[in-house]
Design goal:
By secondary structure, the protein is α/β, with parallel strands linked by helices. It has helices at about 50, 85-95, 110-125, 140-150, 165-170, 185-195, 210-215, 220-225, 245-255, 275-285, 310-320, 330-340, 350-365, 385-395; strands at about 5-10, 20, 35-40, 85, 95-100, 130-135, 155-160, 175-180, 200-205, 235-240, 265-270, 325, 370-375. A six-stranded mixed β-sheet has the order 4-5-13-10-11-12, with helices on both faces. A four-stranded parallel β-sheet has the order 8-7-6-9, with helices on both faces. Strands 2-1-3 form a three-stranded antiparallel β-sheet, with no helix packed on it. Bound molecules: pyridoxal-5'-phosphate (PLP) and zinc ion. The site of pyridoxal-5'-phosphate has 19 residues, from helix 4 and helix 9.
Length: about 400
């Protein structure tokens, strides 16, 4: 297996043991903790100009800070997404700048591609022939796409309430799709069962593979570079399993250690009140979440009632002096429409939790008038345009 020079091993976030990535593929063999790729940053010399001189063509342009060399990557030029200025909304919110990191411009229309490009590359490096996961929809579609590109089989377990586009595209990519009645937890159980029957399948599941959050840290690298190395005061992120949030916080700490930036952006988790285990835990001052018994939100991507990485998410929020906010589904859908009408940008209904959360944080006086606020648009609106259209219909439009 070929890895990059600075990638020194997989560290368990619970027991602290380090493992050789050639030998260990998923969770900690000692304690089942989450494994985190670690880099010897002293061995990396990366100047701002040097980074800026590279073509802005893919997240793999930060190759020395990723686990595998770019020439080995299963890639479709994911990442390198636009950071779009939103002057009208900045005025509305009373902040200096509001920008939207538009992850809808990825190969399968969401930031899940950043995780799957690295996870599927790892699967190939480990000699896997089949990848498997349960997902709310977008990660399943992304896994099917990257597996197709790598010539692997993908086994994807989606809940019946996943969107039509996500289910259809798993089929179109040639994936083996299982639609499970119920919600994400039911899909997760079916996936677990199938893994027991097929021990040779290689999971590319959230925080089961060590590589998805590591790929998603590039969203932070890009954002900072696109702001000419200014660190945003706040990054508002629609939070489900927290892969992207944990990844971005990790990316900020790496850039800080490399001397490329000298502070951390405040990370804010935005959720729906229908399923807000992270917001509840943050407000209670807890170090770990309590599972939500009856999750109920139309925002499928953030309907994660039992996020196993909550200690990492909560630590990121506190360490970065950020926060957490929940708003109602109706406000969230309204926020998507508002962004589409005020700025023209198409944000998915799940991602609108971040926009809605940013509006709420501004109303609470959380931001200063000169602040730079970044909202993550984790996926494009047109994958689930029906949800936004129904919202308009419910208002008689
Ligand atoms: C998966 C997903 C999320 C939640 O992502 P996490 O990083 O797991 O918190 C948010 N928005 C969209 C569109 C998603 O597909
Ligand atoms: Zn461990």
């Amino acid at each position: 297996m070929e890895t990059t020079d600075a990638f020194v091993g997989l560290v368990c976030v619970d027991c602290g043991a380090t493992f050789d990535p050639a030998a260990v593929t998923h969770r900690c063999p000692d304690c089942d903790g989450i494994l985190d790729p670690q880099y010897d940053l002293d061995s990396v010399s990366l100047a701002r100009d040097e980074v800026a001189d590279r073509p802005f063509d893919s997240m793999w342009r930060y190759g020395e800070l990723l686990p595998f060399p770019r020439e080995r990557a299963v890639t479709m030029y994911e990442g390198a997404t636009a950071l779009v200025e939103c002057p009208e909304l900045a005025d509305d919110l009373g902040v200096g700048r509001l920008l939207l990191k538009d992850e809808g411009r990825n190969p399968t229309g969401t930031f899940k591609d950043r995780g799957q490009t690295v996870a599927v590359t790892a699967a190939v490096e480990h000699g896997a022939e089949d990848v498997a996961l349960a997902s709310a929809g977008n990660a399943g579609q992304a896994a099917a796409a990257y597996a197709a590109r790598a010539g692997l089989d993908a086994h994807v377990f989606l809940p019946s309430r996943a969107g039509f586009t996500q289910k259809a595209m798993v089929n179109v990519h040639g994936g083996d799709l299982t639609v499970v009645g119920g919600r994400i937890g039911d899909a997760g159980e079916a996936f677990q069962q199938a893994m027991e029957d097929n021990p040779d399948w290689y999971p590319v599941q959230t925080f089961v593979t060590p590589y998805r959050h590591d790929g998603k840290k590039t969203m932070l690298y890009e954002t900072v570079e696109q702001l000419d190395w200014e660190v945003p005061d706040a990054v508002v992120y629609p939070t489900g399993g927290g892969v992207g949030l944990v990844g971005m916080h990790k990316g900020a700490k790496e850039f800080q250690e490399l001397g490329l930036i000298n502070e951390l952006p405040g990370m804010y988790a935005a959720q729906s009140t229908g399923c807000a285990p992270i917001v509840d835990a943050f407000e209670a001052g807890a170090e770990v979440h309590e599972a939500v018994e009856h999750p109920d939100t139309i925002c499928g991507g953030v309907e994660i009632p039992d996020p196993g990485a909550s200690p990492l998410i909560l630590e990121a929020l506190r360490e970065s002096d950020g926060g957490a906010v929940a708003t109602d589904d109706d406000e969230i859908l309204e926020a998507a429409v508002r962004v589409a009408q005020r700025e023209g940008l198409e944000i998915g209904h799940t991602c609108a939790a971040a926009a809605s959360g940013a509006f709420e944080l501004a109303a609470r006086g959380e931001f200063g008038e000169d602040d730079t606020v970044v909202i993550l648009n984790t996926g494009t609106a047109n994958k689930n345009a029906d949800v936004l259209r129904s919202h308009l219909m419910s208002k008689g439009v």
